[in-house]
Amino acid sequence: MINVFLQPLRLLNADRRAVTAIEYALIASLIAVVIIGAVTTLGTGVAGTFNSVASEL
């Protein structure tokens, strides 16, 4: 009788590891999006600077 109630609890324990992995994947993807946005913004600014220096030369 007790095993009937403990079986779902055991399954929940296994699911927590999967949820943790999903959380880490979401955090990693958010960090990747921020990095891509920062590199794109900096790349545009640097390209503008190089273009202005090239036109002055």
Describe this structure in words.
The protein is an all-alpha fold. Helix content is 96%, strand content 0%. The protein is built from one helix and no strands. It has one helix at residues 2-56.
Task: Give a nutshell description of this structure.
The protein has one helix spanning 2-56.
Instruction: Please state the average pLDDT score.
Output: 82
Radius of gyration based on Cα positions: 25 Å
Uncertain runs:
none
Largest sheet, strands/sense/barrel: none
SS element count, helices: 1
Run of helices and strands: H
How much helix is in the residues? over 70%
Beta-strand fraction estimate:
under 5%
Tell me the distance between the termini. Answer: 86 Å
Structural class, please?
A: mainly alpha
* Shape, principal axes of CA atoms: rod-shaped
Number of strands: 0
Please write out the topology.
Layout: H1 2-56
Descriptive keywords:
mainly alpha, rod-shaped
